[in-house]
Structures are given as C-alpha cells and as structure tokens.
Design brief:
Chain A: It comes from Pleuronectes platessa (European plaice). The complex is a heterodimer. By secondary structure, chain A is mostly helical. Helix content of chain A is about 70%, strand content about 0%. The radius of gyration of chain A is 34 Å and the shape is elongated. The radius of gyration of chain B is 27 Å and the shape is elongated. Classes of the chains: A mainly alpha, B mainly alpha. Chains A and B meet through helix 8, helix 9, helix 10, helix 11 and helix 12 of A and helix 4, helix 5, helix 6, helix 7 and helix 9 of B.
Chain lengths: ~650, ~325
C-alpha cells in the first residue's frame, strides 16, 4: 500500500504509525479530536457527556483493542499479521455490528465523534486492510458504519469534513490502482480495471489450486518438508474469501484434498467461516466441495439437515413433488450415498426428530422421501464405490433390512403379497419377542422395536403397497397387511392396545369393503356415517389413527373396481363431512407420484390413473367451493 | 451510422455531466443504470469499429467536436479519446465517484454488498463492492503465490497482450501497437513490460502462434535494447523457459550474452571484468551464470558456443593470462 497522501494536511499524519508511506491519513478529518493525545485523554469527551446516551462500555473499551489491532496489522505485512487478521475476522464483524448499532442510535456524527474519537481512524485503517475488505460481512458492515457517519445535512465543519472523507475513501478504494505500470499497460490495451482484476484473481486461484492439488510429497516421513505444509496457511488466508465466487475452486481444492498427510489439516476458523457462510446461503461452492465440507465439519452437516427439516416441515400445503425436489436439492441424499458417515449422522438427526414429533406424518413422509432419494443415489454410484448397505443401517434389524430396502418396482407385482406377508410376520415376531421380554430389559427391547419401526418408516413404500393391496378388495390374506399398517401407525403398543387396534382396523376395512363393493346407488348411509366417525378423533380409547382409515379409504376409492361415479361420490361425502379436503388432495398426489415411479402393474396403470384424475377433479371442485367459515368448523388434522 | 455518431456524442456528454455537473444530484438508480447502459454502448462501439479505419476516423472526428463543446461547458473536463471508449464504464464510475454532487443514495447503491437481485439495476448495484472485493482478494492471495513464477498479474497481462496482438495482426497494426506501448513505458514500467512480453511468449494456446511470431520478430529485430533489458530483468528460470520454447529467442539470447561480454573491460583496480553500458550492469559472474544456465538447458549448444568463444579468444591473441581476453577468462570460468 502506497500513496493516499492527497488531501492530507500533514498535521497529524501517522505520527504514531511511523510508516514512510501510510494510507491512514484518510482517517484524518475524523481523528482531529484526539489523535495527538494519549489514550487516557481519549476518554474525556465521553466522560463529560455522561449525562446523555453513553456508548456501551464494551463498545468503548473494545475500540482501543481494535485500534491497536488495526495499527499492528497495518504496520507489518508478514504472514503472522495476515494470519492474525484472518483469525480475528469473526470477532471484528460482531464488533462492527455493535459499533453500527451505536452509530445509528446517536443523534449526529459530531456527537458520535465526541464519544468515540478513535472511530474514524479505526474505520479508515480497516478500509485499507485487504483481509477486512475481502470479507463480505466485514466489508458490508464497514460501509454501513461509514453511511451511518455520513450526514445528509451536515450541520458543522466536522460533519462536512467527515462527508468529504467518506466520499474520498470510497472513491479511492474502488478506483485507485496500486500498480502504476500495470494500470498504464491496461489502459493502452483498453482493458477495464474491473475485468483485469477479475482475471488476475482467477489466475491466482488457478495457480494456488494446482499447488494444492499436488499430492503429498513426504510419503509418511514426518520430518521431511512437504507440500502439505502450506495447506493450513492457505486455509487460514482463505477465511475472508469464503463467499467470494472466484475463490471457490481454491476452497473446493482445499476441502477435497485427500487426508493423506498429518500436516494437511485445515484451519478451524476456515471451516467455521465456511459453515457460517453455508448457513447464511452465501457460499458458492460446487456440490462436491459442499459434501467435503460436511465431512470436515459436523456442525455444518447438522445445520444442513436441520435447515432441510425446517424448510420441509414449515412449508404448508407443500406437494409431495415439491418435497422430493427440496430433498434432492439439499444435496444430502447424494452426500449420504457417497459417505456412510454422513448418512449415519443424518439418520441420527431423523431418529431423534421422529421421537420428538411422536410420529408426525410430515416427519414420516420426509424420512421416507429422503430414504428413497438416498437409495436412488446409491443405485447411481459406480458399483466399486458402493459400500454394502448393511454398513449404512447398523442399528436396524438385519433380518428384514434387505427385504425392506428392496423397492416394490424391483419385483413383479404378483410377488408383492407374498413379500408383504413375510415382512409383516417377521416384524410381528420381532416385536412380540421384544415386548414379551419387556420385564427384563425393557429399554433395549423398546430400542429394538423402535429401530424396526424406524426402518419401516424409512421404507414406507411397503406400507403403501399393503394399503394398495387392501384397497383392491381381496378378502384373503388381509391379516398380515392390516398388521403392518397398524404397526406403522401405532408402533408403541401403549397400554397393550395393539390387538384392539387391529380389530378396529379390520372392522374399518370391512366397512370400506362393504361400501366399495355394494351395488351402485344408494351408498349405504350408515357405513358412511361410521367412516366419518372413524376419521374424527373421538372420545373412544384406544382411538384408531384417522390417517390409517383415511389411507384405506383413498386406496379403495382408487383401486377398487366399483364404478368411478360411486367412488367419487363416497369420497366426496366422507371428505366433505370430515373436512379433510387438503389432506385427501395431498394423499392423492403422493399416490400418483408413487405410481408413476412404477409401483403399479402396467395393465392396471391406465385405469388407476384415470380414476385418480377424476377423484382429484372432485377434490379440486370441493376446494374451490370450500368457504372459509366452513373450514373453521373442521379443524381435524391427520 | 449517423445515429451511432449522435449516440456517441450524447454518451460522451453524459460522461462529462456525470463527472462535472451538479445535475447528478437529481439522479436515481434508473438514471445510474441507464448511464452505465450508454457506457457499455460506447465500449461496444469501440470493440466493433476499432479496426475499421473509416468508421473509426468518423468517430474520432465526432469526439473532437464533442470534446471541444464540452471544454467550453465544463472547463475542467478531460477529453475522451477513441481508445478511452474501451473503458467507458470505468470512466463513468471515476467521474461519478469524484463528483461531490453525487447523491449518497447512489453511492450506497454502488457500494451495497448484498443488493437484492431484483432491484432492477443488477449490473450497477454493488458494483464498487465487487471491485473492492476482487482487488482485496488478489492482495490477500498474492503472498501465497509461489515466488518462482513471474506473477499472476504479468501472466494475465501477457495473455491480454496476446489477445490484442491477435486482433491487430490481420490489420498489420501489431508492430505499431507494440511500439506505442513501449513508448509509454519508462523506468520500472519498461522493466515490467519485459516481464509481460516474456509471459506473453510463454502463453500456451494453439491460436497464438502467429501472435508469438509477431511479438518475437518485433522484439528481436526492432528492439535490441528491449531484448537486452528482458534478458537482464527476467529470472533465470523464466529465461530458460523462453529458450526452450522459442529457438529464435535462444539464438538471440546467445548473441546478447556475447554482446555483453564484448562490452566488458578489465578493471585493473578491481581485478575484475566490468561492464558499464547495460543498465543494470551485468557482472562477469552473472554473465558466466547465464552461459552456464544456457548450456544446462541446451547441452547441444555447448560445443558450438565454446568454439565461437575459442575463436574470439584466438583473435585476441590466444593468451592464457587472466585479464587479457574476456573470452579466455569466460572459457576458463566455464570449464571450472
């Protein structure tokens, strides 16, 4: 850094910093109050003003600290000072934030300057520190502080001078060139400075990226110097550059370097800066680099999972298609397929969310969607890169793991029924074993049942196939299918009610069966009445989960061979009386999505598709006619 | 064509207003955005017509007229030449930022680091913030770049020089351009230009062979002093890259070394060969190192050069006494 002596009165210029050519004169007009006085006297104006709004003690005390830092950073351009700057950036930006709020509460710039006489100098020095101005957050806050000190209508000489100074600093920062020879040449060649600097930056990044990419040269010999020595330093220097798009290839190279050498560690501050930029969505890294970031930084992985959960669970009226999109865009399924360790973390978070939410339906469908996206990514991986699926599910009951993870589309529809019978009886056996042994090791037993259920939630495509089969009116073999459905909706067997719930589910099925196989017109009114009662959370204990009944109803409506008009009419009546229009529409959409993914025998596909379309039309009309007043009286949720 | 000239004229007037008139205090973000649109238009005119002598001539004439008018209206205004058009947005920005009447709201817009993308002036909002970020990032990274390289800046300039030459070759104006660049360089700038020339000669893209040829011919045939300066300014590793890459350069380099040697005189006082003509003077030791590096890079050259040196030594009387013939002393130094 050279020049910037224009406009300097020479009065106070850098008496303190002792540089031959020093940029700090820019802070002159604002520093005129106290630059020549000792640090104690700096506090005097503030003490005199104690009767009015006093700056927060922390703002004032810390100002001296940061002033000392800024002076030290400006005096030597050594690797140590650069490192120190990088490592202080986060603290600096929170201090700038405090300063900003302080500036904004004080009435005038003159007053601010009286209270914080060193402020102008500090800001001036920071403006000429490239580590500070390279960092998005610090730069933004620095500019905001300057705007805060700018007086739209200056009332005295101090404010007029401050205004001029602010304009001059900003003009010089953006238009002055350090390298006169280069500037001259670029002018002759007609290259605009902006493009030139961008090219130089890109070039530097490419050179450094290439160096980083060189493999470790010490080959395990700890005493030999190797190229890894520069990794830590480079990552520290990159702290201010985490949200600079041009630096992304270098940051990506740092993150993706294979961890072969003990000296190739990345700086914690670098990883923290990346995590924070990631959560603020200002990180511009390639997908693969983001995955590497998750490997390096657990907190950023957790952040990503929680943000996915939040975005999915908070979006009301979201469609199943939208959920698939959100999940895939989160990049997490891909990262999980590539790295088992990431999958285990993500799954742990899902596990505890599921427990906390007590089996909330949105959480369940998110977990199912996530698992199916994950399985798709696993299938896309090269076979040699793929770890055995068992490694991904160490806590799940291994006997049912592969059968559950198998997709319905991976076997002929004729085999579904047999497969489900087997799955259901295996799970039933497993839960009975654990529940019987409850007296001895109940915690462990509960844990195993939970894991079996968690796996079923992840692979709920089989639950959906069983409701589909139950909806096709077949009377034989419905026991195991109903058990699977009941277990999915009532995993805990609280109060040993499962047997009773099973009986209720069987009765519900019988009602529906009667309704959807009765001769057309008129639909038996008492059946419909009963259904509505089942769908409403009534006083009876144990209540059967309404969403269980509801999914049965929908599958009957879609898959039964009853004339379409009758099915439409039943759905219309039940939905209208229970007020579950939105839920029905959403369930139909997700059924459609699943069927389009190939979980329906092809001969039946067209018929089913037409039926879904007709049912959707009915619901659309109902939604349009649904008056707000009416919707208030129906507040059931599934 | 006429409308282009009219637009050019108004754009230049706009530049003058932006830099010198109090009228900018009425500007809002849309005025700012459209001012930059016009500046881009001028850049486009430049890139489209700079190689078209007829149009360029007409535009230069138009600029002269406009500049004359503007001189009268804004006495302090700087003239806009045709080449200036290539960096018109930059001119506009400098003018605006130096105009004390520029509204603070516009300043804020230019320096806003997180401007919303749909603000309607995507290209200008945060413009200065981006420039500062980019310049700062270069400064932050520069200490990390390996010391052996010429530097990313020289490499970029070399690449740009090649592009420019490529565009000028078809119009036979490349040499003229190089001359004019060189005329503008003095002292440190001239030395810097040598680094850029070297970097340009070392760029590797298929399309640049013709540009390499032109630059090399210009350097070797017309610019002996620039060639010498290049040979003394460049780090040895870079010189050897050039020697490997360009045969013509290798031979010219050898001749430069011989010329340096021939200009040396033996200082009896110092007991050393000294050379005072080149600036900075090359020492006898440095000269030896140059020869050694050359032999190491091109071992096949060694015999020929040594024969030449030997012939020169013989013409000096073929004495084996130190201080009588620079060639003899060089040879004995090289054989050590």
């Amino acid at each position: 850094m050279t020049r910037r002596v224009n406009g300097c009165s020479g009065l106070l210029l850098c008496g303190g910093c002792g540089l031959t050519s020093c940029p700090h004169d820019l802070s002159l007009p604002l520093s005129k109050f106290t630059w020549t006085r000792g640090p104690m006297s700096l506090l005097q104006p503030a003490i005199q003003l104690q009767h009015t709004t006093e700056p927060l003690p922390s703002v004032q005390e810390e100002l001296q600290f940061w002033m000392d830092k800024a002076v030290a950073w400006g005096q030597a351009d050594s690797p140590d000072t650069q490192r120190d700057t990088s490592l202080h950036l986060r603290r600096l930006s929170s201090y700038l934030q405090e300063l900003l709020s302080h500036i904004n509460t004080v009435r005038s710039t003159t007053e601010t300057m009286k209270r914080l006489p060193l402020l102008g100098q500090l800001l001036g020095r920071l403006c000429w520190n490239p580590h500070v101005t390279a960092d998005d957050t610090s730069r933004g806050l620095l500019f905001q502080c300057l705007w805060g000190l700018y007086s739209e209508e200056p009332s005295d000489a101090v404010e007029r001078k401050a205004n001029q100074w602010i304009r001059r600093v900003l003009c010089q920062l953006s238009t002055e060139e350090d390298d006169a020879a280069a500037e001259k040449l670029m002018k002759r060649m007609g290259v605009p400075p902006k493009e030139y600097h961008l090219k130089v930056l890109t070039k530097m990044v490419a050179v450094l990226q290439e160096n980083i990419g060189k493999s470790c040269s010490s080959l395990g010999n700890i005493n030999q110097r190797c190229s890894c020595d520069s990794i830590l330093a480079t990552s520290e220097v990159c702290v201010p550059l985490v949200s600079c798009p041009e630096a992304a290839p270098l940051i990506g190279a740092l993150l993706q370097r294979p961890a072969t050498c003990v000296r190739a560690a990345l700086s914690e501050d670098f990883l923290e800066a990346l995590s924070s930029a990631f959560s603020r969505k200002v990180l511009s890294l390639e997908d693969q680099a983001v995955v590497s970031l998750w490997i390096h930084s657990l907190s950023s992985l957790e952040e990503a999972v929680l943000s996915l959960l939040e975005s999915v669970l908070s979006s009301k009226g979201s469609t199943p298609q939208r959920m698939v999109q959100q999940v895939s865009q989160s990049l997490l399924p891909k990262a999980c397929a590539q790295h088992c360790s990431i999958f285990l973390v993500v799954n742990d978070i899902f596990r505890s969310t599921l427990k906390q939410s007590e089996g909330n339906n949105s959480v369940k469908s998110l977990i199912q969607t996530f698992t199916s996206c994950f399985l798709r990514e696993v299938a896309l991986l090269q076979p040699q890169k793929c770890v055995s699926l068992k490694a991904f599910f160490p806590q799940s009951p291994q006997s049912v793991l592969v059968p559950l993870l198998t997709l319905p589309s991976e076997m002929p529809p004729e085999a579904w029924s047999h497969h489900l019978n087997w799955l259901s009886s295996s799970l039933q056996r497993l839960t009975e074993e654990e529940e019987e042994g409850e007296g001895r090791s109940s915690t462990r037993g509960h844990q195993r049942v939970f894991e079996a259920w968690f796996l079923l939630v992840q692979c709920a495509h089989w639950v959906q196939v069983s409701v589909q089969l139950l909806g096709t009116n077949r009377l034989e073999d419905r026991g195991p299918l109903l058990w699977l459905l009941t277990f999915y909706h009532h995993p805990t067997n609280r109060g040993h009610h499962r047997d009773l719930q099973l009986v209720q589910a069987g009765e519900a099925w019988l009602h529906l069966h009667a309704l959807f196989s009765a001769p057309p017109h008129p639909a038996p009114a008492d059946c419909q009445q009963l259904l509505v009662a089942l769908l409403s959370p009534g006083p009876q204990r144990p209540a059967l989960c309404p969403s269980l009944v509801f999914s049965l109803l929908l599958n009957f409506a879609v898959f039964s061979h009853q004339p379409l008009s009758c099915s439409t009419q039943v759905l219309h009546t039940v939905v209208r009386r229970s007020g579950l229009v939105e839920e029905a529409a959403c369930a139909l959409r997700s059924l459609e999505l699943r069927l389009s993914a190939g979980s329906c025998s092809s001969s039946d596909a067209t018929r089913v598709h037409l039926r879904i379309e007709a049912l959707q039309n009915t619901l659309t009309h109902m939604q349009a006619a649904w008056s707000p007043a009416e919707s208030q009286t129906h507040t059931h949720t599934l | 064509m006429e409308s282009a000239l009219r637009n050019l004229s108004s754009s230049v007037e706009l530049l003058a207003v932006a830099a010198h008139s109090g009228a900018v205090d009425q500007w809002d973000d849309h005025s700012l955005s459209s001012a930059f649109d016009w500046a881009r238009y001028c850049e486009h005119l430049f890139s489209r017509f700079h190689n078209n002598p007829a149009v360029r001539g007409a535009m230069e004439e138009q600029l002269q007229l406009t500049n004359g008018r503007l001189r009268a209206a804004f006495p302090g205004s700087t003239e806009v030449s045709f080449p200036d058009l290539s960096r018109c947005q930059h001119h506009l920005l400098i003018g605006l930022l130096n105009n004390p009447k520029l509204p603070i709201s516009i300043m804020k817009l230019l320096f806003d680091s997180n401007a919303p993308a749909d603000s309607g002036c995507v290209d200008v909002s945060g413009l200065c913030s981006r420039i500062i970020q980019c310049k700062s990032a270069c400064k932050v990274l520069s200490p990390l770049t390996p010391p052996s390289a010429v530097g990313a800046d020289a490499e970029v300039q070399g690449g740009l020089l090649m592009e420019r030459l490529g565009a000028l070759i078809t119009h036979g104006r490349a040499e003229h351009f190089l001359d004019s660049v060189l005329r503008g360089c003095e002292g440190a700038a001239a030395e810097h230009f040598c680094l850029v020339i070297a970097a340009a000669l070392l760029t590797r893209t298929n399309s640049e062979t013709a540009s390499h040829e032109v630059l090399l011919d210009w350097l070797l045939k017309e610019q002996p002093s620039t060639l010498e300066r290049t040979c003394s300014a460049l780090p040895t590793a870079r010189l050897m890259d050039l020697v490997k890459e360009h045969l013509k350069f290798r031979d010219a380099y050898r001749d430069v070394l011989k010329k340096w040697a021939s200009e040396m005189e033996y200082s009896i006082g110092d007991g050393e060969w000294v050379q005072s003509r080149t600036n900075p003077p090359a020492s006898f030791q440095k000269l030896t190192e140059h020869f050694q590096a050359l032999f190491e890079t091109c071992p096949s050259l060694r015999d020929d050069v040594e024969k030449e040196l030997n012939a020169l030594k013989i013409s000096d009387g073929d004495f084996d006494v130190r201080g009588l013939s620079v060639w003899g002393d060089l040879l004995s130094e090289l054989h050590k």
